[in-house]
Amino acid sequence: MIGQYLKKLIYPDKCIVCRTLLEEENAGYLCDKCYSFVLRNHLCPKCGRPYNIGGKDCAYCKAEDAGDITQIIALFPYKDHFRKSVLRWKYSGLRKYARGYADVFVTDLYALDKLSIEGLVPVPISEARKRKRGFNQALDLAEEISKLTGVKVYDVLKRTKETKPQSKCTKKERLSNLKGSIGIKKDSESLSLNNIAIIDDIYTTGATVRECISVIKRQEVLKSAKIYVLTVCIGI
Ligand SMILES: [Zn+2]
Ligand SMILES: [Zn+2]
């Protein structure tokens, strides 16, 4: 008890988004204010952005080709505190954030139940980046979601070549940068699933996810699988 108390005193629980101290009775990971910003209203049924207003077609879906994605579920817009939160998670080694994000997907949005997800496939990072960072944040998130739901993680994808960070590419470079950059691990068990969720940290142009999907869809047994995307932040 004392140990727990001291630990709280030294490492008080802070909101993983805005870092304000959480009240004792708030056992979650987000403060009430940040929690209220979770994307849940007026969502486009395909891309998950909050632009389904008055039954008009979503401007994003019109402009970009989401390809074989059945539906995207995003927690936050990729801006402000939310952007900073996800960047701290990735680059400052705050791995415990994965648990907080997973909690919102599972116990707040019920995303896994609603979509009958049968398998979680994290977006892979290259070996070099993994060595530098020490972990793949998407795999961490998938594992936390799995702990809460029992849905299995299939870490079957891998980077087959080192790519420039997408953020450093021009729009034109982005596609060719990623082409053929993702493959399936040789020893991966065959995943015969109907509903798959690709797990990602940030969805902006969707180029990486589309590359993952094209690899998945090349597997004969997955040709007609529905592919969902669970991402912490989405470019808006
Ligand atoms: Zn907050
Ligand atoms: Zn849309």
Please give a structural write-up.
- This protein folds into two domains: 1-36, no CATH class; 39-234, Rossmann fold.
- Strand 6, helix 10 and strand 7 form a beta-alpha-beta unit.
- It has 236 residues and is α/β, with parallel strands linked by helices.
- It contains ten helices and seven strands.
- One zinc ion (ZN) is lined by residues 44, 46-47, 49, 58, 60-61.
Entry summary:
By secondary structure, this protein is an alpha/beta fold. Helix content is 36%, strand content 17%. It is globular and about 55 Å long.
Keywords:
Rossmann fold, binds zinc ion, two-stranded antiparallel ribbon, 36% helix, 236 residues, 2 domains, 10 helices, five-stranded parallel β-sheet, globular, single chain, alpha/beta
